[in-house]
Amino acid sequence: MENCIFCKIIAGKLPCIKIYEDEQVLAFSDINPVSNGHTLVIPKNHAENLWKIAAEDLTAVHLCSKKIIQAMKDALNLSGVACVQLNGSSVNQTVMHYHLHLIPRAVDGPSLPLGPWKMQQGTLESIQDTADKIIAAL
Ligand code: AMP
Ligand code: ZN
């Protein structure tokens, strides 16, 4: 994709701090790290989001994320890793090339600015109603 910055990184036209690469995926450090080690895993085939990505690329990205968070666990003194993936500008996706964020939280590090969202009990009726709509569309 011509104007996609992540496609440019894959093509070597823009630099990145590469963590891992194989035929299907590239993992590199996020340039605006939420925490030390913040890494992005992307498919080499351009796909905008979870609706568009091919199943085999999705599988490759997530298998790669498993490998990388294991390495993070071995190399960094972390207490957890948030795996975050956004679909659509309305939910703050800014780069329109599928990417999975791997965001480690250091032991004794500050809490990540991701959740916890306010827990507010829903009504069973409304939860069921919405679930029924999704189920009917599956
Ligand atoms: P999102 O909001 O999920 O679309 O996140 C896009 C992420 O890409 C942000 O965390 C950016 O910091 C990151 N990003 C954008 N450009 C680059 C780049 N050239 N190299 C590394 N990370 C980037
Ligand atoms: Zn792209």
Quick overview of this protein structure:
A hairpin with a 3-residue loop joins β1 and β2.
Written overview of the protein:
This protein has 138 residues and is an alpha+beta fold. It has one domain (5-110): 2-Layer Sandwich (HIT family, subunit A). 30% of the residues lie in helices and 20% in strands. A five-stranded antiparallel sheet has the order 1-2-3-5-4, covered by helices on one side. β1 (18-21) and β2 (25-29) form a beta hairpin. The model has no long low-confidence stretch (mean pLDDT 96). It binds adenosine monophosphate (AMP) and zinc ion (ZN).
Characterize the overall form: globular
Number of helices: 3
**What small molecules are bound in this structure?**
adenosine monophosphate, zinc ion
Proportion in β-strands: 15-25%
From the coordinates shown, what is the CATH architecture?
Answer: 2-Layer Sandwich
Widest sheet: strand ordering: 1-2-3-5-4
Mean pLDDT: 96
What do we call the CATH homologous superfamily? HIT-like
Radius of gyration: 17 Å
CATH topology: HIT family, subunit A
Major sheet summary line: 5 strands, antiparallel
CATH class value: Alpha Beta
Order of helices and strands: HEEEHEEH
